[in-house]
Specification:
The complex is a heterotrimer of chains A (396), B (568) and C (242). Chain A is built from two helices and 20 strands. Chain A is mainly beta and 396 residues long. Chain B has 568 residues and is of the alpha+beta class. Chain B folds into two domains: 205 residues, Jelly Rolls, CATH 2.60.120; 324 residues, no CATH class. In chain B, the strands form two sheets. Chain B has a 16-stranded antiparallel beta sheet that branches. Chain B is rod-shaped. Chain C is α+β, with helices and mostly antiparallel strands and 242 residues long. Helices cover 18% and strands 53% of the residues of chain C. In chain C, helix 2 crosses helix 3. Classes of the chains: A mainly beta (396), B alpha+beta (568), C alpha+beta (242).
Chain lengths: 396, 568, 242
């Protein structure tokens, strides 16, 4: 019996050898990797600390035929201490990895459909010590999306899409609110910030210009609204945001510029109770504290200079809160005014190609943040920070 | 059964036993001959088999495509190829002159596929290659993918006779008398090999393969960019505004078996203060008499409260310093290292905060003593001059207050009523530090006496302590007993064994995550100088707190100097 | 050399704060999880490049910083079991990797000083690597590796040991990681390669970016551990292909 099995296995293996064959000319599969890392020093208000980031992605694409293909992308990124406002605060570290699989099908010469599924995990840590597991703000997101591209002519593309993400914070609770809001029974298993995110958008690219509008809704599954009597109401938190963007791309010889204006309107039915301390018995209620309008402008410029690929980027954001007053340095509200935050940023990246794929990168950025909010125990609002860094990147 | 296998063997292996080379496609004037002695004939049909010993040649503007086993050989114009051997285990072709491309796959183990020229023998191993040769012995090979075993047909005078030409390299022999050349394959040759060599392909379609690959790469890059952009756009919706320095939380079981959620926060009530608090929630606090076998039967450790739902306890430490703390946490290390920085006072407050109007608390406070240059806990903390040795004993605060008065305890806003003859009542102090008439709920302070008892567990991290306190500094006010049972527990609620923990294979980070500290506090009545099991404050039975070391651990590197300076 | 020093300088945490503060913060980080720190040193010696074209296996020994100064004797073997395109055009190259490390200096330290009762640092790793060619000179590779390290230091109990104000205690812990690896290798010249890769640990979220330049005999590189105590580790290895 055993020797018969061995013989069968041998026949099977030979068959594979005979039956499978594919020339390089018949490859329908490509892959892609890009990796970049940057490490540098941050300087802000007399403090200096090292920090950096790493970004990498692997992509695969398989063509079933000239109209249908399947793409997979895995993204892995690390964000260390930096002066950037994207982190929640300067010392935070974030690891994010996600995978997206998209199926693309061309229905006609003019129309293409692209549904996708997505899964991602994010880990956040507040200091150098400790690890990334089981932290409060770790979150998972999974979902799907659907895009339709319409190509009416060579210079015009119209894209419309929808995206759904279920975002979960499995470790987050806030028992402080339960103590400060009698009668509230919070879950002890986490999930206070869990929400369903829906995003719809449309984008028109016409010649050198593009116009886009995006509408995002977040519907929280557990988080309730704080009422003026310091208790939780029955309604759950709902956030909405509309973003309009207009931009262009223009090339003059080796110089490319991509200016873009963004206007965002954010509204939320959530209010805010300001507690100065754990034992503060006179919290201050601010209704609609998270509503704001924001105007932004970005100007990335690419050009070559003495053999270096230069990327210069200037940006500006002005955010005006509709109802939220600013606070003084003692955490007291200044009524009669509304909080206004401004952020200027400038960055310069010089890349030197060292071979077909790789570049050595010098990086400098400066960020100036200013606000009429002077309460800066936890998040600085008025500062100027700089970062110098060097790094590598590859892509093809 | 065996006959079936032999039959299957013959069917499946027959291609393995016998193989041949055939012209599967051609264009223009392609000729063949069956052996060295036969005449050249024109190829007039596809899939024509050429036997071993035969040859194929192409004329100007002619191309051919040959297939042997699973390998393909393309011939360009003005090329002549001899068919030496075409078995499964040994295929040998001879390039007389011209240009060929070979793509070989599916070679079985120990098989050989070789192409010979006048000067060289190339053993192809799963590759895509291009060879250009002439009758004078010049040869150029470009190895696109895979490896090629090279061997000189005529051994050279010096140097190696054979070696491996690896992927991405070219190799050429211009003159047998001169050394060979080797280097990186050029982009032009690479594109030429990747282009389509099929005989009937039009000139427009020659580079179609390359264009298709480029198109795929372009689409893939575009997809990756789209994926990154979408991630970036959605990232800001996950951001939450920060209102505290550090946060931590954990769900575990306590020593009674209740499921517990602990939230820990560090925040700054004002620019000079730090407040670290643990809030402990139990959806169901089960009834018990004694926490563990170690406290079972010990007087002063009996719980009289029964089961409770949605129970909340807390432990709050508040530090106040003489100088404002830096906003930036990264500067704390140098702040604590500053010799001019010192804590002014510290309070440790434990409280059952389930009921907003009836908070049962127990607290200790420390105040900076300039003479001793350290924080001390004696009657000075309640504003009573420490003018006797007895008054240098520990002071504890306890009572039942409402939520609004808790900040008076944590914020060190209390003072003894009637400082000259302190009866134990606590009142608010005014801005000048003098007593006011506002009593802080039903709260009292006590001065420790000499009566106490300590019990330690054998091989486990736990201890039971009971201390008698005189209410105020006035014997007529009476006494109470302060009992505390402390445990180091795992996340499943079991008391840690001393030896097992100290000898464990775990690092500090793991120990922090796996352990926490549970303290159950009772305030009991005094019965003739002994501790009784009756609660001093009727209806208020215990404070059951759990402290997790997460935030102190996160701040280890930033507050190390503070710890070293003030650890005693 | 100057560029190297500049790079090392700029990557040191908190360069412009007090150096003593910086040093004690680093020691505190090591003390909080010593096995993780020694894992980072050991990880420098782990082979994570595919077997080069024309070779069947690669043997590597890391000289710096693993062997010198940390006295980690180490060896890694990367064996090719399947060449790219063997059965079909899309089939990647498959290599198996295995390695071991042992700190012989720890035993010497035990014999030399009375303060140490026992010390033992050892580890191993094993994995699989796939690689396929993007073009004739560029390959992408991806794989998986399991790593393990055991770190033990037993100090005399009757003494207190401190380094830069940080109490050093005995420890006996281990660290295990399962990493995914992906990167790109480019052929620069005959027998000269350059590679860049990311290793991401799925069990403990360890992250390292590696840059390598290697040829017939040696490999030079930088390993960047953004969450590590020492962020940048320059490396030098003997790397032989057969």
């Amino acid at each position: 019996m055993v020797s018969d099995m061995k013989l069968l296995i041998y026949i099977y293996l030979c068959s594979i050898n005979v039956l499978s064959a594919e020339s390089v000319d018949e490859r329908r599969f490509v892959n892609y990797i890009d990796i970049s890392f940057l490490q540098g020093m941050n300087f802000e208000k007399g403090a200096s600390y090292s920090g950096g980031n790493m970004n990498s992605s692997i992509g695969f694409l398989y063509d079933f035929n000239e109209n249908k293909s399947l793409s997979l992308d895995y993204l892995l990124s690390y964000s260390g201490p930096s002066i950037s406002y994207e982190n929640r605060f300067f010392d935070e570290r974030i690891i994010n990895h996600s995978a997206m699989i998209e199926y693309s099908t061309r229905l006609s010469k003019y129309v293409r459909l692209r549904p996708h599924i997505y899964y991602g995990k994010e880990y956040r840590k507040d200091s150098a010590i400790g690890d990334f597991t089981d932290n409060l703000y770790n979150n998972d997101s999974k979902g799907f999306g659907f895009s339709m591209d319409y190509y009416p002519s060579r210079d015009n593309t119209f894209t419309t899409y929808m995206v759904y993400r279920k975002i979960e914070f499995p470790n987050y609770t806030d028992l402080l609110y339960e103590f400060l809001n009698p009668g509230v029974a919070t879950e002890i298993g986490g999930g206070l910030y869990d929400n369903n995110l829906y995003r719809f958008g449309a984008k028109l690219m016409s010649g050198d210009f593009f116009y886009s509008v995006d509408y995002t809704m977040q519907r929280y599954t557990n988080q309730k609204i704080v009422e003026s009597d310091a208790s939780y109401g029955n309604d759950k938190q709902k956030d909405d945001e509309v973003e309009l963007k207009i931009g262009m791309q223009h090339k003059i010889s080796d110089l490319s510029i991509y200016p873009a204006f963004t206007y965002t309107v954010h509204s939320s039915n959530q209010n805010f109770l300001r507690f100065k301390s754990f034992t503060d018995v006179t919290p201050v209620f601010i209704a609609d504290a998270y509503d704001y309008k924001e105007l932004g402008f970005d100007l990335p410029v690419y050009f070559k200079f003495i053999g270096l690929d230069m990327n210069l980027s200037a940006g500006f954001k002005n955010r005006d809160y509709s109802k939220r007053p600013p606070r003084d340095s003692e955490n007291n509200y200044i009524y009669g005014k509304k909080e206004n935050d401004r952020l200027f940023s400038f960055s310069l990246t010089a890349s030197k190609k060292i071979n077909d794929l790789a570049s050595f990168v010098f990086y400098y950025s400066i960020v100036n943040s200013s606000s009429n909010n002077k309460f800066e125990y936890y998040i600085p609002f008025n500062y100027t920070g700089q970062m110098f860094g060097i790094g590598y990147k590859i892509s093809y | 059964m065996r006959f079936f296998y032999i039959f299957a063997l013959l069917v499946f292996l027959s291609p393995c036993l016998y193989s041949e080379i055939s012209i599967v496609d051609y264009n223009g004037d392609v000729k063949f001959r069956k052996n060295t002695f036969s005449e050249w004939e024109s190829v007039n049909e596809k899939n024509m088999v050429i036997p071993d010993g035969g040859a194929v040649k192409t004329d100007t503007n002619s191309k051919a495509k040959l297939l042997v086993n699973k390998s393909t050989v393309w011939m360009k114009e003005n090329t002549a190829l001899e068919i030496e051997s075409t078995s499964e285990y040994f295929t040998s072709l001879g390039l007389v002159y011209g240009k060929i491309k070979a793509s070989s796959f599916g070679l079985v183990k120990n098989s050989m596929f070789q192409i010979r020229t006048i000067t060289a023998i190339f053993g192809i191993r799963g590759t895509d290659i291009m060879i250009v040769g002439d009758i004078n012995g010049k040869v150029l090979i470009n190895v696109l993918f895979g490896e090629v075993d090279f061997e000189y047909a005529i051994p050279p005078k010096t140097g190696k006779r054979s070696f491996i030409i690896t992927q991405g390299m070219y190799f050429s022999i211009e003159d047998l008398e001169k050394p060979y050349k080797m280097g990186l394959i050029s982009k032009e040759y690479e594109n030429e090999i990747l282009s389509n060599w099929d005989p009937f392909i039009s000139s427009d379609d020659v580079l179609k393969n390359l264009y298709e690959m480029d198109n795929r790469m372009r689409r893939l890059r575009s997809f990756v960019l789209y994926s990154k952009a979408l991630n970036n756009d959605l990232k800001k919706f996950i951001y939450k505004e920060r209102e505290i320095d550090f946060e931590a939380g954990r769900t575990l079981k306590d020593i009674h078996g209740n499921t517990v959620r602990v939230d820990q926060r560090l925040l700054r009530p004002d620019e000079n203060s730090l407040e670290l608090f643990n809030i402990v929630k139990r959806k169901n606090y089960s009834d018990y008499s004694y926490s563990s076998s170690y406290s079972s039967g010990l007087p002063g450790f009996k719980y009289n409260g029964g089961g409770v739902t949605n129970r909340l306890d807390s432990f709050i430490i508040t530090f106040n310093f003489n100088k404002p703390l830096p906003d930036n946490v990264n500067k704390w290390s140098s702040y604590f290292n500053d010799d001019f920085v010192r804590p002014e006072w510290v309070t440790f407050v434990s409280a059952d905060i389930t009921s907003a109007n009836n908070l049962f608390f127990a607290a200790k406070a420390y105040k900076y003593d300039e003479q001793r240059d350290k924080l001390v806990n004696n009657t000075e903390v309640v504003g009573v001059t420490q003018n006797t040795q007895e008054r240098d004993n520990e002071v504890v605060l306890t009572g039942v207050i409402n939520k609004s008065s808790l900040s008076d305890i944590t914020g060190f806003k209390f003072i003894a009523d009637n400082i000259s003859s302190p009866d134990g009542r606590l009142v608010l102090k005014d801005l000048n530090g003098n007593p006011t008439s506002s009593q802080i709920g039903n709260s009292i302070w006590g001065l420790k006496t000499s009566a106490s008892s300590d019990n330690y567990c054998d091989n486990r991290f736990c201890q039971m302590k009971s201390d008698q306190y005189k209410i105020g500094d006035n014997s007529s006010s009476g006494y109470f007993w302060f009992s505390e049972e402390d445990y180091l527990i795992s996340n499943s609620g079991s008391i840690r064994e001393r030896d097992a923990l100290l000898d464990s294979n775990k690092n500090i980070g793991e120990l922090v995550k796996d352990n926490s500290f549970e303290s159950v506090i009772y305030v009991k009545k005094d019965s003739g100088g002994s501790i009784s099991d009756d609660d001093y404050f009727a209806g208020h039975h215990n404070i059951d707190i759990i402290i997790i070391p997460d935030i102190p651990f996160y701040l280890f590197d930033k507050t190390l100097d503070a710890y070293n300076r003030w650890k005693n | 050399m100057k560029l190297f020093l500049f790079i090392f300088f700029i990557f040191s945490p908190n360069t412009f704060a007090s150096l003593e503060d910086t040093g004690s913060e680093m020691v505190a980080q090591i003390v909080s999880d010593p096995a993780r720190f020694f894992y980072e040193i050991k990880a420098d010696s782990e082979e994570s490049l595919p077997v080069s074209s024309g070779k069947t296996y690669t043997l590597s020994v890391e000289l710096f910083p693993t062997l010198v100064p940390f006295t980690y004797a180490n060896a890694s073997l990367n064996y090719n079991i399947y060449k790219e395109g063997k059965l079909s055009a899309n089939m990647p190259q498959i290599d198996l990797m295995i390695g071991a490390q042992y700190m012989f200096g720890s035993k010497i330290a035990v014999n030399l000083t009375n303060d140490i009762n026992d010390a033992n640092f050892w580890g191993y790793d094993a994995g699989v690597m796939f690689s396929n060619s993007f073009n004739s000179r560029t390959r992408t590779f991806y794989g998986y590796r399991h790593s393990f390290i055991s770190a033990k230091l037993d100090l005399k109990k009757d003494k207190n040991y401190e380094l830069l104000g940080v109490r050093i205690n005995s420890f006996d812990s281990s660290f295990s990681e399962n990493s995914i690896i992906f990167g790109v290798e480019t052929l620069k010249d005959i027998n000269k390669y350059w590679a860049m890769q990311i290793n991401y640990g799925l069990s403990n979220n360890t992250l390292v970016a590696r840059l390598s330049w290697y040829g017939k005999w040696f490999e030079l590189g930088f390993n960047i551990y953004p969450e590590g105590v020492l962020v940048v580790h320059p490396t030098w290895s003997l790397r032989l292909g057969f």
